[in-house]
Amino acid sequence: MQPPDPALLNDLGRILAPERVLARPLDRLGRSADASMYQLIPQAVVRPRGLAELRGLFDYAHTRSRRLTFRAAGTSLSGQALSDDLLVELGPYWRAARVLDRGRRVWTQPGVVGGHLNRLLAPHHTRIGPDPASIDAAMMGGILANNSSGMCCGVAQNSYHTLDSLALLLPDGTWVDTARGDADAALQRERPALHAAIRLLRDEVRADAPLAARIRAKFARKNTTGYSLNALLDFDAPADILAHLMVGSEGTLAFVAEMTLRTVPEPPARATGLLYFAELKEAGAAVAPLAAAGADALEIMDAASLRSQADDRTYPFPIGDRMAALLTEFRAADEGELEAALARARSALAPFNLLAPFRFTTDPVERAEHWRLRKGLASRAGAMRPSGTSFLTEDVAVPTERLAEAIADCQALFARHGLPDTILFGHAKDGNLHFVMAEDLRRPEAVERYGRFLEALVDLVVAKYDGAIKAEHGSGRNMAPFVRREWGDRAYGVMRRIKTLLDPHGILNPGVVLNDDPRVHLQNLKPMPSISLLADRCIECGLCEPRCPSRDLTLTPRQRIRVARELARLDGEASREARALGSALRADFAYEGIASCAGDSMCQTSCPVKIDTGALIKELKAADHPPFSRRAATWAAGHFGLLASLARTSLRAARALRAVPGGGLALEALTDLLHGGLPSLVPRLARELELPRAAPALPALAVPRGGRSVVYFPSCLTRILGGLPGEDALPPARAALDLLRWAGVDVRYPVGIGGLCCGLPFAGKGFPEAARRAGAETASALWRATHEGRDVVVTDASPCAGTLQELCAGLLKESGRSLRVQDFPSFWAREILPGRPAPQKRPGTAVLHPTCTLVRAGGLPDLLTVARAHRESAVVADAAECCGFAGDRGFLVPELTRSATAREAAEVRELLAAGGAGLYSTCRTCEIGMSRAVGRPCRSVLHLVHEAIFGA
Question: Span 447-456, mean pLDDT?
Fold first, then answer.
């Protein structure tokens, strides 16, 4: 890996702000892969903020013969979001979106995640047409550039057919916005030669009857091979043709800055079922009858696909090697129409011998679980591959009526090429099949075997079925050498003319879509060395990234794993260059990869195979701790009361020092010095960073009244951290005791509460032995306090509840004992509110910030129940995610919390300004982080309930 030319970086720093030119080895390697089997290391990653900077990049690329590749989310599966020159990252600064015409249209920039648009459109009962499995990670720039479709999209609702208008910047700097009524006249005035050339090409294609007929036939089915030649037939005005040529162009023709899509209705009545067949071919044969019956989705899955879901599905029988299933969904405007559709489905299935009774569900939770598993199928299938092998996927389309025949041919092809473990699934209604296979691409013979298989697959799909070798994943560099074979010389020549016409200097994403190198698909293959049992299953799909709190600050989970893999690869090399690169990577990774990782495990919630990159980082931390650190942590876990007392004393001392003139500056200098020596323990206390007060002593317990009893476990955060300056809320422990007594509950503290800890602070820092010691002492104390598990433990912090359940209760379970632990919202929602008269609601809206542990544990419904029982309404911001405080990260790495909360804080401020009564959460540090971010107090949900019951 060669360092970039300093002159290049200087030049780029004049076009963009230098901090938006990323050129360290860590930055370049982290973005060197997408979800495909390829890796290209860019010379630099640039993050333009507006059109002026894009024009500057285009001019620079022309004059210096540089090449630009646009990257949105990087979830592409065919290698189209990679560059060995300049990678243009769009996600951070191109995120604007707005709903138009009461949901009938939506305007968006390319860095907006598709699922975010659907959430904006949900109140209008509409959605965008494309519905790829990656919709909650894929961004609109990539969705349009690949003409992504998906499970229910088909052809009619893809990006091409729902495009209303588009604004683009051509490589020569020409701006075209088809939302303007005079867009075509403006193009003719500003670029007369281009306007005339598009007209000429349009007329030539229309005059060539065989070619025109072929184009219409090919695009009547799913097809993303090559460029969208149907634009030359479907539209007359060159500006409109140009706009639609952008769809599926994979960033090779222009920069798409804005797009407006027509939305599609979201039918309210739905029924989903999994139909089991003894043979995959028989499942394929059932597709046409079910489609004729009106099925909106027909997802075929072979036996290996079903086995990959076995951890989360219960099957009515063992999965045999030849079995298959169809995930089938019907959608309708009302229940009567839905029942009629299901009746048609029963009739359509009458000739088939299903292995289980016909059953469809309308339950939204069960339906969502069906689709969650289906959307994660590619990642799940990839996770089944042997460690060290690469994830390979192909995507073809054949005529739907010949699907069963094509399935049999594909299975024979797998066997013939020594790929018997290939997994097959896809959008059967569209004749769209996906294959997932594994190969050890470090071995030349495996690369050649894959090459022979791909040649045979192309021959089969093109020669026998006249199908598409890329149905929805885009040509990329994977199928670029075969575009001519599918389309023929005449159509391929038109595509070449389009590329030359719009990008004559070849500066945009070269080698993608069209490539005359017959072996480009076997080059630049991504290494996948083994790094950890935890992370080896990762295929780097990127579905985790939208939930990562550090995604806009440092690295994402996928990028952390990519860098960790590169470090593992370098460890196997002895050259001086490898050692130097490894040293540089490790130096930067210490902050970018480890210190700035929140470790909140939220990436696990969006990973189809539940890879917890936070746990991987904790493993790396644990491996780096010297023996004396581990011994010190274990000692501290056994003397936690002393540690908590020192923390409270430090807070008092810091606040006192700040009150002295010049004390803030002295405190900042002192903590900077201490942080340099103890970065995982001592935070930098910048002058502008508000510090909480030390928490007061725990309140005394009331005299028991002989009723039901619970054990109250005030979290260590409640015992150490008080309010921020200006906050005068009741101490959370006092509020909890008031509420529990009001509910008629007798309360006990566990003996020695001041020295007890659930173990989470130690586990988060990579000290598992210390965490276990702290957890064991707390478990024993709670076991005694709960009368050997008879009473429930209630705590005021959701993260503490999660660790008490996992670690402390887990330790007790080892000896056959059990412990019930609930956070306050769950206890109040499940055990206090039911059976009581409806409480008096206070006016206004409660704005909620759910903690990561609460979300992972499925506790959001309980939190909403509690808030809505005591306030007129309750909402969670659409942008609500992990705040990045993560115990002490908000003190040690405050920039992580600032970055993680930026979007949520902006939305929360709007909600509060529109009548929100207050902001509430269920963890003291999260409350501090959100208070800092929003500029308004964020308090415990205990205060929300206390205000409703006892008044302000």
Answer: 96
Whole-angstrom distance, CA of residue 792 vs CA of residue 712:
9
What is the DSSP secondary-structure string of 403-461? Answer: HHHHHHHHHHHHHHTT-TT-EEEEEGGGTEEEEEEEE-TTSHHHHHHHHHHHHHHHHII
Give 844-899 as a 3 state SS string.
EEEEECCCHHHHHCCCHHHHHHHHHHHEEEEEECCCCCCCCCCCCHHHHCHHHHHH
Q: Comparing 678 with 625, which gets the higher pLDDT?
A: 625
Task: Dump pLDDT digits (tens) for 92-118.
Answer: 999 999 999 999 999 999 999 999 999
CB atoms within 10 A of CB 196: 12
Q: How far apart are CA 828 and CA 865, in angstroms?
A: 9
Closest among 726, 657, 649, 736 to 699, alpha carbons compared:
736
Report whether 752 contacts 780 (CB < 8 A).
Answer: no
Which H helix or E strand runs over 185? helix 183-190
Q: Which of 945, 901, 447, 517 is nearest to 742 (CA)?
A: 945
Predicted pLDDT at 665: 80
User: What is the per-residue pLDDT for 672?
Assistant: 75
* Angstrom distances, CA of residue 542 to CA of 33, 138, 592, 627, 887: 10, 8, 18, 36, 26
CA distance 751 to 102: 59
- What contacts 602, CB < 8 A, 6 or more positions away? 547, 548, 549, 852, 855, 856, 881, 882
CB atoms inside a 10 Å sphere around CB 680: 17
How much is the average pLDDT of 908-921? Answer: 92
- Name the percent of the chain lying above pLDDT 90: 86
β-pairing, 746-748 with 709-713? parallel
Cα–Cα distance between 778 and 763 in angstroms, integer?
A: 15
Phi–psi pair at 300, nearest 5 degrees: -90, 140
Q: Which domains does the chain have, with CATH numbers?
A: 97-139+162-265 (3.30.465.10), 529-624 (no CATH), 709-950 (no CATH)
Residue 859 pLDDT > 90, yes or no? yes
Within 8 A by CB and 6+ apart from 521, the residues are 451, 454, 477, 478, 479, 480, 481
Selection from 466, 465, 485 nearest residue 475 by Cα: 485
What is Dmax (Cα atoms) for the chain?
A: 94
488 close to 447: Cβ distance less than 8 angstroms: no
Residue with tokens 């490589």: 171
718 with 695: CB under 8 angstroms? yes
pLDDT at 684: 67
Adjacent-strand bridge partners of 819: none
User: Tens digits of per-residue pLDDT, 505-529?
Assistant: 999 999 999 999 999 999 999 999 9
pTM reported for the whole predicted model: 0.93
Q: How far apart are CA 197 and CA 194, in angstroms?
A: 5
Q: Which residues on neighbouring strands pair with residue 89, listed in sequence order?
A: 71
DSSP assignment of 544-571: TGGG-TTTTTS--HHHHHHHHHHHHHHH
Note the pLDDT of residue 178: 98
**Residue 805: both structure tokens together:** 């359940």
Candidate ranges 207-216, 599-608, 682-691, 889-898; pick with highest mean pLDDT: 207-216
Q: How far apart are CA 373 and CA 371, in angstroms?
A: 5
Spell out the alpha helix ranges (H) of 503-626: 557-571, 576-589, 602-606, 613-624
Residue 469 structure tokens: 């070798």
* Residue carrying the six token digits 């594994």: 438
